[in-house]
């Protein structure tokens, strides 16, 4: 069966499989320079939609239809007794097999099959996953109407579900706001989802010409006879599911169903809170997203409740085959922890195996508490340790309870504002907190043998990357000089927060520091401070980063002030701290490669940072040390 459809060419897909077998599945996409696929292929948070429908007593069998590269199937294998991964494209299924073997997942069955006639008996599955699939079903048979094919497909799904079993559909909204601004539809053309189907068909026949050659944007090398990738509105999805005979519909909004790290009910309240949260944490970094966030914040939740279902980006859709016990849902038990709750926002932690799920419980639009539990209960020890650190270093009461096999933590919502990079006062408060934290965790001196081993690993990693000779030479020289100066200096070991950035620092009457996933008990004192200033320096663009570190940017004056303050207070030589910058950036990149838990995957920015730093290293170090 030589059918191919995908985000990359068939040749590239085959190469990824070969590389995965040779150097490991985690390195495959990075090795080939396919950065944009890294999270899509590997991230565990791609299956966080599950927590909106997970039945604590229905975790026997799950089916993932059109499972792609296997991110959902792998995640499901930690939650269900048996997972069936059904995928038509051979190369994708081969990659899944490699990953499952390397990750030790033995409860996944891999099936290469079409989806219109499912090779399973009736009433077999507790959950059937249809993530990013329903819209493509129309390509199964060019001689039949796409909607008729979708109905046939959904009837097959219903047949194999157990009574009370759950169907999950992750999909775009036909009328999502971004399509009105020219975003590309599944056809490979803009605006086609918004048009009447027949008009879209005319445009597809005229403008969607492949010439028999594969293009990323068109996903396959075949031409279409008409418009085939039907999506629907909020109400349209409910109508088609009713027609098939499903019950108990629940539809949540999400920004991107392929990475559903934020989701909530269609009540206007949860999305309004998310916008305020993103604005407060300065996550809307592009001009477009900033404008969109500011405009959306003008609308009250009542307005959003009326109009948001029309223009929401994507939907997470849940439905039952007959019945279904809502009391057995994990989410309902989480929500019952707050009697006054009026809405909620589910928000994921990092991408990783040991990360967490957060439920912000809202009362009339205001957050009152955060409920947290481990993404996978097998790895909840990491969250137990993190919550202990949060309680200890913030002086707050963290309550603990149990839901099924999961430890569940309830934190008060910490009011305040994040550390503002443009405020000298906020920067100073953050550094004061760090200095106090380091003073309280001092434990002997950095051992020469341990440090040399860490530097050796950094040097090996540097040479394994595809940096230019010039970049490698500059960074290697910096590492050698840093190692030499460390060998001549006695530096006290301290604990490291590991992700000391402005969005993890909340300023109120006191300083709160959150997200302790990367905590290390004994490290050098450089990483947290340097990580803080380099991330503050790159707020809007790489030009912003470059000018700040050359001493002529908006943040330069603040950075120089806290740089001098940190060195003077710690009695650290400025030259030694300056030489540590290459090491810190490289370490930030390196841990994204070697972290087996896959917590952070933003590799591109730190590669860019190393390239830029190599250009300005000499000039920047001179400015920082004079």
TrEMBL record:
<dbReference type="InterPro" id="IPR011009">
    <property type="entry name" value="Kinase-like_dom_sf"/>
</dbReference>
<protein>
    <recommendedName>
        <fullName>Methyltransferase type 11 domain-containing protein</fullName>
    </recommendedName>
</protein>
<dbReference type="Pfam" id="PF08241">
    <property type="entry name" value="Methyltransf_11"/>
</dbReference>
<dbReference type="GO" id="GO:0008757">
    <property type="term" value="F:S-adenosylmethionine-dependent methyltransferase activity"/>
</dbReference>
<dbReference type="InterPro" id="IPR050723">
    <property type="entry name" value="CFA/CMAS"/>
</dbReference>
<dbReference type="InterPro" id="IPR029063">
    <property type="entry name" value="SAM-dependent_MTases_sf"/>
</dbReference>
<dbReference type="InterPro" id="IPR013216">
    <property type="entry name" value="Methyltransf_11"/>
</dbReference>
<feature type="domain" description="Methyltransferase type 11">
    <location>
        <begin position="63"/>
        <end position="169"/>
    </location>
</feature>
